[in-house]
Amino acid sequence: MTKRAYSVKAHWDDEAHVFYSESDIDGLHIEASTIEEFEEVMLDAAIELIVANHISTDDLANAILKDAGSDTRV
User: Fold this and answer.
1) 57 in a domain, yes or no?
2) Which pLDDT belongs to residue 3?
3) Rounded alpha-carbon distances, angstroms, from residue 71 to 2, 60, 64, 67, 74
4) If both were cysteines, with which of 8, 42, 63, 65 could 23 make a disulfide (CB 3.0 to 4.6 Å apart)?
5) Does 3 fall in a domain?
6) DSSP secondary structure code for residue 70 in this structure
7) Residues with Cβ within 8 Å of residue 16, at least 6 apart in sequence
8) Residue 12 belongs to some domain of the structure
9) What is the radius of gyration, based on Cα positions, of the chain?
10) Domain range for residue 48?
């Protein structure tokens, strides 16, 4: 699986008094009244949306198998 970086930017809307998101993660749309709330929502939702919308089933299966093969516990 190819590594890829995603971005999420928080912008302030003076009229609506909310932070809103600009992102390249499909499906990620955030509006929050504080930056702390914005960050919390982003951290909760971003990983799920990346897995759901940007990673194929084959890529995900290969990543899981690769990680399972690198287990060095005794």
Assistant:
1) yes
2) 75
3) 21, 17, 11, 7, 9
4) 8
5) no
6) T
7) 31
8) yes
9) 16
10) 8-69
CB atoms within 10 A of CB 9: 10
| 54: phi then psi, degrees, rounded to nearest 5 | -130, -5
Q: Distance between CA atoms of 14 and 44, rounded to whole angstroms?
A: 25
Residues of the chain with pLDDT under 50: 70-74
We report the CATH number of the domain holding residue 49 as 3.30.2390
Q: State how many domains the chain has.
A: 1
Sequential DSSP letters for 14-69: TTTTEEEEEESSTT---EESSHHHHHHHHHHHHHHHHHHHHS-HHHHHHHHHHHHH
Instruction: Answer whether residue 74 is part of any domain.
Output: no
